[in-house]
Amino acid sequence: MYELLISNGFDYTFAASLMVSAALIGLGAGGAPGVGSLAGPVVALGFTRFDKPQAIVTSLLIMGQAKCLFPPQRRHIDWRMTLFALIPATAGLIAGISFWAWLIALPDSIAAQQTVKAFCGLVVMAISFDILMARVLQFYKPPQLGIVLSLMLAFFGGILSTVANVAGPLFTWYFQSKGASKDTLTATVACFFFILNVFKVPFYLWLGLFHEPHVLQSVADWIILGLLGLVTLLAWKVGALWRAHASEQWFSFPICLAGLSVGLLVIWQTMG
Fold first, then answer.
1. How many Cβ atoms sit within 10 Å of the Cβ of residue 149?
2. How far apart are CA 250 and CA 235, in angstroms?
3. Taking Cα atoms as reference points, which of 32, 39, 37, 3 lies closest to residue 228?
4. Are 177 and 144 in contact (CB under 8 A)?
5. Where are the beta strands (DSSP E) in 59-100?
6. Which tens digit of pLDDT belongs to each residue from 40-69?
7. For residue 60, how many other CB atoms are within 10 A of its CB?
8. Confidence of residue 190 (pLDDT cuts 50, 70, 90)
9. Domain locations in the chain?
10. What is the pTM of this model?
11. Rounded to an integer, what distance in angstroms lies between the CA atom of residue 72 and that of residue 31?
12. Alpha-carbon torsion 261, 267, 268, 272, what sign?
């Protein structure tokens, strides 16, 4: 990250995108699950290549979501729900990484990546719109997922998480459909994505996403990550405050708002 910040003089835009992304991840982990998905498109604003932001975003997500493993949030994790979703999601993750490895090897790789990410943006917008209509505005009853549909959705979510880092709204929607409360939803989503993102690291290393430019390859990189961790922690506290005072109905509002924003931003970036 340090290499990117100083490669052509200090890059203030990239520095700001890192800070905003860290704050969004903290908000999501603290009390607005799904909001962290905005981190991917925000970090991508500092890049010309679409595949490089994923290494940085994954590192930030792991750092921000790790707090769920400590009290008091840890006691709210629903481990049964987490493990049930992790199995198909991990299969989807491996499928997504294999697909991404094939995609970035294509002669016209950038155009192909843009098409795939635009589709991912549309999916996220559709899910977020359902959260808005069913849970915030309560125009109809939220959908209940059966076992087969749950497995299929988690598998697709694993693919979405790998190719675009924007699966937050989908899995938040998934866990909401299981009847999770505010505290359980926030802790379970954070734990789920912490484990899923840790799984991604060796595959991203294999794909070379932590190299050229180098990510977390120097002491300076780790110092920057630590400073961003302070931003994440402050934002986590704001998210926890929102979670404590928001009603179950309006708790979903930032989730759907972030999802719609993610979809629009991803689609806009693919048109550049």
1. 13
2. 19
3. 39
4. yes
5. none
6. 888 877 665 545 677 888 889 999 999 999
7. 27
8. very high
9. 2-270
10. 0.86
11. 13
12. positive
